[in-house]
Amino acid sequence: MIVDGRAITSEILARVRGKKTLTVRAVSVSPSPATESYLAIKASRAEDAGMELEVLQLLDSATTEEVIAAVREPGADAIIVQLPLPDGIDTQAVLDSIPLEKDADVLSRAAYARFENGEDGALLPPVVGAVREILERGGIEVPGKRAVVIGQGRLVGAPVALWLKQQGASVSVLTRESGDLAELKDADIIVSGAGVAGLIQPNHVRQGVALIDAGTSESSGAIVGDADPACAEVAALFTPVPGGVGPVAVACLFANAARLNHNPSEAL
Amino acid sequence: MIVDGRAITSEILARVRGKKTLTVRAVSVSPSPATESYLAIKASRAEDAGMELEVLQLLDSATTEEVIAAVREPGADAIIVQLPLPDGIDTQAVLDSIPLEKDADVLSRAAYARFENGEDGALLPPVVGAVREILERGGIEVPGKRAVVIGQGRLVGAPVALWLKQQGASVSVLTRESGDLAELKDADIIVSGAGVAGLIQPNHVRQGVALIDAGTSESSGAIVGDADPACAEVAALFTPVPGGVGPVAVACLFANAARLNHNPSEAL
Q1: DSSP characters over B25-43
Q2: Which domains does chain B possess?
Q3: Helices B245-260/B126-137 angle, 10° precision
Q4: Nearest Cβ partner of B247 from A2, A9, A250?
Q5: Which end of chain A is more exposed for a tag (fewer CB within 10 A), N or C?
Q6: pLDDT in tens, B163-187
């Protein structure tokens, strides 16, 4: 028998799986029951996305340098930092230590600047991705619309307001210090990230509004949003809490992790 | 419309591909037409295996330190060094700089020791993998057989002789300095890695031998093996050159790269 090495080669190579499971590292400091529960949910969603979530839990006594070392340790394909960090930690320095090519949450200044400047291939912060996904699926076009964003936090208000402007909406931002809830009445699109239970009542908004509730707070032991659930009867599109923006943002986070690790030429 | 965030989440996550294409880095110093051609073949086989071959070509003037830096640079999932390296380079130091978890060629002392000691989960050097694959497919059992290995090089003779002993064969090694071609006549299994064209003639071997020719040399511009092709008429199993052990060893190399990058719990 003359061995056909080329045929054997083709058979071996066809059963080799040249793919690797993506590992997303979550760095968490001083875990609380709430962050433990968020991380458990993320681990489960990572699995749904075919990825592995590797959690590095640091003690409350960790220094900024130790947190940065945990972020920078090689081996992960994407890195997320569970916020908030304890008071003694320099949060911005930690976020800026996430390498651009691993920053699935778009929280380092470098990654955020790419989003801000609308650079080609820049990732959207996960909550922005969720808002886009929800509006698109609801058939709601953004250009020319009047939008009101409540809050200007790093995770919701600031990036969502920026994105809505980029898309051609006229955007008002309401905060505790400035703005008037009466502005809600004129809005076509409302995105709320205040974290104040019952802040938005049905009489605050107009019939047919798209009301995206990205605020969460605790009320009598339950997680609730900024909008009274009765707003669903007035709104044309309404996202409940829980079960609305939150899980979609987590999905967008893992979709970002995948994008960071595929060839730009590959379709997503 | 009340948005069902969980349903959107499931849809997004189902289309996320949480897998990454494996990148194998080949470090090559002072390319010659021969090494360029080997690397082109490896690139093509990598593609067949769903991987990417990233070639780092260093100039002839590269120092040992520069070659080691190219090996150690982060980013690759497996690393191979194209041998031989130029005379000025400390080959063993370069091979030992390949991290154990990326050494698909099993050429660092650490990876080779795991193979030597028969450790659980240790990889086989690619030529050994090819010899095993070819014998298994040919239905040839090794325990108790008389084997002769020609040559004791790092890539063929030494690891193949070791493996045949591990499998329970009685093994003689022939080199230029010691041993007698007459020993071939008693062998059940011959593995040749001499690189001497026409070294083995049909009258040297017994009817029914398994003759695995892993030697290559150039003869009148063609790549030929150690065995005269007429040996195929005497042997029960014969591997031609080209098209025998060579391509199977390359396949085993990429199969090793895949194994290094999958969870031990995953079936291969």
Answers
A1: EEEEES--HHHHHHHHHHH
A2: 23-121 (3.40.50.10860), 126-246 (3.40.50.720)
A3: 110
A4: A9
A5: C
A6: 999 999 999 999 988 888 999 999 9
